[in-house]
Amino acid sequence: MEILNKIKSLFSKGEQDTSTQLPKEEQASFELSVDGILVGILSCGNGLWKFHYAEEFKAVSDEYNLITGFSDLDKEYVSETLWPFFRIRIPGLGQPRIRETLEKEKIPADNEVALLKRFGMVSISNPYKLRLA
Hints:
The protein has helices at 2-11, 55-58, 84-87, 96-104, 112-119; strands at 28-34, 37-45, 48-53, 77-79, 129-132. By secondary structure, it is of the alpha+beta class. A five-stranded antiparallel beta sheet has the order 4-3-2-1-5. The longest helix has 10 residues, at 2-11.
């Protein structure tokens, strides 16, 4: 059982990952898309994350489910913390291969923007693609 717990901890997004944050000086913009349709824009600046749906997606939104946590097509969402929908794109930082990549590419393990830029394009948990705008 101890070995199983050790293996699980290597791949978890547990306590060690809660230290990631959005540095106040970071500014970035990401485009979220699905099936070649621009769904929305995730941006950050001044220590805040923002998300809003794109007009392109609003025009076809009846053909898709809205993103969990973003139920209003016309609202600009603002948060000091990265929403779980986007956060799951950052792999567990306890994984040896992830730690190796961070070290090799000199990516700060506590910078959510840098982690999203490096690891956030695709997720096994949903079909959406995220790319730096």
